[in-house]
Amino acid sequence: MENNKKVVTLVYGCQMSERDAETLTEITRHFGYSPSDDIETADLVIVNTCCVRESAENKILGKIGELKKLKERNLDVKIAITGCMVQQPGALERLQKRAPHVDIWAGTHNLHDFSALLHRVEQGEKVAEVWQEPKATLEITPLAEKGKLHANVNIMYGCDNFCTYCIVPHVRGRERSRRPNEILQEIESLVDSGCREVTLLGQNVNSYGKEFSPAYDFADLLQQVNQIAFLLRIRFITSHPKDLSNKLIETVAEGEKLCEHFHLPIQSGSNFILERMNRKYTREYYLSRVKKIHKLIPNACVTTDIIVGFPGETEEDFEQTLAMMNQVHYSQAFTFMYSKRTGTLAAEMEDQIPLDVKKRRLQKLMSVQNQESLELRQQMIGKMVEVLVEGPSRTNPKRLTGRTRGNDLVVFVGNLETIGSLVNVRINEAGSWTLIGEVE
Ligand code: SF4
């Protein structure tokens, strides 16, 4: 086997997509590939795709078009298109017609079969595999990432919620939780290779383990991960508000390594829109969860996702979303314009919102959030925060960078020898997204 082949992996979408891309890259190592950033000299290019928003899809289609030119310059390069976009019902045929230069097509349910597909391609075949249903046992392939300080760890796959705007349950299937011992072993092996912080990933981590008997839930898993020696921090995303239990909030309050950060997507502040979205909570229930978090963990950070311009959203509904932002004081909000996804219920709703209205609402939302973020971070000036030191800052190599427990980026004056450990930093300046300080 040749051992100097290069693979370039391009990722679009969420952390789940990033994690899948890491898994694919790891699989290629067994075929003698090593990771590279240089697409011109690559022997294999993998594009792990996302279909959550139309804008992401358009970018990916543009990239697939660019890869055609690469193939014309270099006939030997292999191209693989994988992930959510390929998994969408009916997408494969449409994509294959548009991009005959692609060598491997694989859906989200096939990723762990990628070695078999790559083997066939190396024998000169072109392959396309999109299973309609996941084969759960193949999903469980822990792969250690050597020397990385932070790692994402999948604890479950798929989603059972069917929010009316979301394509995820259609492309990632129903919820399947990994067994706790497999997750714990994966994290222990990551820690052995230098990892100090993990983010546990799932579309809705709060419903982890609901199929297990005897009962074992996400809070139980967190308590066990918290016991792992030499691991310094544990994060998790995403928490569906309807499933955020008191037990989980109490566990985060008590777990020394558990970061006090809840990513709790509200999506809309209007009960009418929440119902149309099939989110299964009201704004009042959501606020009661946030209140509980702050009661047990006064310094907790809450971040969110918000969609503007969902079908039927009136100015009044939108005002309720703005009011929610002022009530919760999110430290960060990921804001999006509603984007129609074929195959979802919301795409069929009649009262779609014009693009100019969606854009105006998005601008307003972003300016409100920027102001909130700035005010919250300015309140940190003069305070000491715990930072996990990641390394020299990219923008100012004379300074170090790292993150607080609330996941804020901090740039600070410190000692290179502290990389990989926790230090206390006094905050001297604050912008909307970054804190500046020095180690005391
Ligand atoms: S909870 Fe809703 S938005 Fe999140 S992945 Fe599941 S269906 Fe999509």
Residues in β-strands, percent: 15-25%
CATH superfamily of the domain at 5-129: Methylthiotransferase, N-terminal domain
CATH topology of the domain at 5-129: Rossmann fold
What is the 3D shape?
globular
First-residue to last-residue Cα separation: 53 Å
Number of helices: 14
Arithmetic mean of pLDDT: 92
Oligomer: single chain
Helical proportion? 25-40%
How would you classify the helix and strand content by structural class?
Answer: alpha/beta
Order of strands, main sheet, comes to 2-1-3-4-5-6
CATH architecture label name of the domain at 5-129: 3-Layer(aba) Sandwich
CATH class categorisation of the domain at 5-129: Alpha Beta
Main beta-sheet annotation: 6 strands, parallel
Polypeptide structure, described:
This protein is an alpha/beta fold and 440 residues long. Among the domains are: 5-129, Methylthiotransferase, N-terminal domain (Rossmann fold), CATH 3.40.50.12160; 384-439, OB fold (Dihydrolipoamide Acetyltransferase, E2P). It is 35% helix and 22% strand. It has helices spanning 15-29, 54-73, 84-87, 91-98, 114-122, 136-139, 168-172, 180-192, 218-225, 246-254, 271-277, 283-296, 315-328, 355-378; strands at 5-11, 33-35, 44-49, 78-83, 104-106, 127-129, 150-154, 156-157, 176-177, 197-201, 233-237, 261-263, 301-308, 332-337, 384-392, 400-403, 409-413, 422-430, 434-439. A hairpin with a 3-residue loop joins strand 18 (422-430) and strand 19.
Features:
about 450 residues; alpha/beta; Rossmann fold; OB fold (Dihydrolipoamide Acetyltransferase, E2P); six-stranded parallel sheet; five-stranded mixed β-barrel; 14 helices; about 35% helix; binds iron/sulfur cluster
